[in-house]
């Protein structure tokens, strides 16, 4: 229904008594009655009059007559009828379109025809508007208000304006209406304005890691506060008062791991209100859900509390979110963040444990700490003092004597009450409030964030006298391990300060702490690994092994037999009575180790899925052949049959996952794995599975029997004897020939602060198409993750995201989250994609930074003052392991971290500090690491500086000698090694480049320094021997890479000055570092540790270059006996060193036989044996070990480690095999030149057989070596650098080169010797070095033309191409032999000066028998007579003259 209202006043009909108006119906059906009403609106007016009329066919005049009287024109206005909302935020790239309408200046006014609109744009905050621009006139349908106030839809004229901003920020648009004709003009003098923002509304989501107490908030965009130079904000400046109170009342610390991640480290759980508020919220939700569980309600209507979904989130609010971004940035922060809290219960084995010494004496304060077994922040402790009894360690007593009850220990009761009132997690018990001879029982409970409560009880014996405090690092005394696993019980010892203890507690505390000894005993059963094979001269039996005489016990596999009852192991610690003390001076600490049979390890080739394969794919196999029984390797284990039983079930009949939008999180994935089968598999599949006949591999054909788009679960039950284990894989097939993808899931928690590595494998389906063609389309790869990871940001990754191997950068994954990753492979010409998915990857966060305090903070003297270092305030709670040390100058001027303590529960350390003589301020950096046990490297580092008074230059040597003497008196090997490193660090070159040394170190002082460095090297090797003993005792053990790296850096620090090193000390250091580089580690070694090792090898070559090793003939056992006296008494370490030396001293004939890898028997020409300096051999051999260690544990293209030193350069990279070759056609390839970023590096190209040998390899290790021309590993000067290459596949095998093929080496000859020659003939021979003998396999003499290269204005080089034949799989260890050969000079009319020919100079890259590989060499000769040169094949300069 339409209504038209016409208003008129009394004046409109005053003259003739009536008022006429015309009404036209343009869209109304004729014959319809129109109702008319006349209403008198005046005061006291007449009653309304109603009437009606019929619509006729009469049409109104067109165009309609002009309004009469004409509208008034008094001014113009402008309105915005369409466009972005005021203050709205839109992404950059949005096109903003505004629609404006000109308006009359008053209610009774009109808009003149010809009016237009102008607009302009300005950007905040300056707001300099641009020029006015004419808007575009358009006709639009719009509602307008006509006279009478009615709204009708009409086609009206509007004006549009478009703005396409090119940068983010806040913008304002202004518009004004303008009318201009020949007589007059009108203009809107108050333009309309609209504000809009180009940028992004930034939101965050938070996750609380209950293990570390870190609340991580991830934002959708970078936050300025998180930038490197961002404004530092405290928690109270970021959070509003309510949220600050929620996370407090303790101090909340703020850190930014990256610009998109905010880490709020919560105070200890006892000082944080978040968990309490969360529990209250959950309790309220539960009470509301079960509100009808009342007696007056039928039970059937009750709600089971277990079925109630309780809240898992809380909310925090920012204080001033508008201040987070500059207004012109275009970004706006949302005000609130939802925080997710994991509500899972503690796993088995978790709970509370009371850490502290079980036996305490009267000379130290006993501290007991209640912590979570898993080291979690999550928990508030409460203490109880429960009982007092006689101690079994007490001396004999009168049986009638009564035990003093709990009530007679008011001091202990007060301490417990005070701890509970303050919710403290630790008790400090002074020995004056306890009594010798008594056993005290304390209890502790721990309530976690979810409200789960756990309890523990501890009994502490109090004895008289001084007793070493010995306690487990983690606080636990009950352990469970597997029969086949190595297991370490880390114990710590707290030794009293004798002087202060005697002054405070009496002469009973005067003991010799340097005489501390340890002894482990199995009180319950046999422990063969606790004994050596040497008969004891003191008692009937065998002597104790080294492991049983250390405070930390490492139990190798198969030592303790599996049994139901735990093994009771006792650690007896004693340092004897002091000079005047009469205490027992001993403690006995028992731990309980339950050993169980190792579960079987079933393995499914290709992973557990889910994954998608092509129907009938030939490369899809069901293979469990990698399954194994870990206990099968036990001595005297019985051989048992391994049986595999395959089964199949359908999980979902229709399974078509959307890889772009329907990603599964770990909970949904687990539900999919555990879902019951909806039906059995088809009979054909069962028949194929039955053909396996109990074997590990199912015959081909399964993929061709699978129904399309059906999710199958294939399960194998692996049985050995009475034990069984299952593993399943989820697979679904599609008709498309999708690539087959497999993906390996990390098996241990990943540290958020470390790189996370994922490795997949992609292969073409192998199924021929309908036309019989092979699937040759290019394959593209993509990764996805749940929770989401921004794969478009290259800063989040250390490798490209379009490869099968992916390395996620540190601080990208959120602590406390579980991620599911998917690798998707799409093949060109195939509609669907293949994929594979990992299981849940758990991420562990590091502790929050603590503080490091040094006493004295200033005024202490270098190498003489003992500094006390302590650390505290680390977030994360629970059991953390601390490592404390200092930073100094090491080899090549690199900074090195030297550790005083490693991975201990103690937060204190003592030691002397070195000071750089070139630093006037004398500032030394002291650091502390805190690590989450079992956190996969979740570690954080804090540091401070301390002012140390530097030594005068002339006093350094004497102070270093005194410091070394003091270090040799220390009982702890780690402390002794740190002190020895400090002594040598003080003698290392200054890190201050502007420092000019005024004191010249003479020959006598250099000899004294060499003795100091040799003694320090022995102490560091002694410390390293303890670690290497563990590897020798248990080859399956894995070491902490930071521990290994610290030992390597310590050795390199001692050997930083070649002129102050003896060849023998350097050789011992190389042996130790090579063994450390080969040691198995839980993670990859850090690059700086491997670089330090190469620096040590470079020092050894420099020793030879300056003539310091000319007389060195190797480390035979007789000569090295005196040196080894200062090394650890570990017989296994000495045996290892001796085995290595014997390998170097074997006869050349034996080495040739045992190290030649070639399988051919063709004759070879062997040159005379060369004199090869053993130190050079050790150093160059160590380089091959360093190159292997640099890439161990990494993935392809993760990193290239260039380790360039003065005399030696090494480059190691792990690559995909395809990186070495370029595709020329469908099946044709050619080699890419392989080189390293070095001015004189060789470039190697390989034949096609190398690629063929790498077809099945997932990666290839490319190791390149360069030895500088100035190095002298033999007796003469050099003319050119030597280069070598090694290619190793993923199985650790050198790749194969066919004998008929050649490897091309392009290298540049450099050296001042060549500049003296104007004309030379180059001779190339391919040689290899085996056990000190040069073997020439290729007798062909090759010549070529040199190419002049102007590398600098003052230096020129010659580049030549050398081709050498391959020799089976042993070639790639070779170096190329290059000779510039002289002749006997004859008299001529030309002016000439004959010079003698230098002996051949051999560069050697040795792969010794000890390492089990081969190598080669490069030889150069030169003649000094111009224009008259001949080619000679002899290596003997005298023979060449004949």
Q: Please give the share of residues in helix.
A: 10-25%
Number of H/I helices: 19
Number of strands: 74
Structural class: alpha+beta
Mean pLDDT: 77
Strand content: 25-35%
Distance between the first and last residues' Cα: 126 Å
Task: Provide the low-confidence segments as ranges.
Answer: 577-583, 1117-1171, 1272-1279, 1311-1358, 1366-1442
What does this entry show, briefly?
With 1442 residues, the chain is an alpha+beta fold. Strands 38, 39, 40, 41, 42, 44, 46, 48, 49 and 50 form a 10-stranded mixed beta sheet that branches. Helix 12 packs parallel to helix 14 (1087-1105).
Account of the protein in words:
The protein is α+β, with helices and mostly antiparallel strands and 1442 residues long. 16% of the residues lie in helices and 32% in strands. The strands form 20 sheets. Strands 38, 39, 40, 41, 42, 44, 46, 48, 49 and 50 form a ten-stranded mixed beta sheet that branches. It starts with 32 loop residues before the first strand and ends with a helix. The model is unreliable at 577-583, 1117-1171, 1272-1279, 1311-1358 and 1366-1442 (pLDDT under 50).
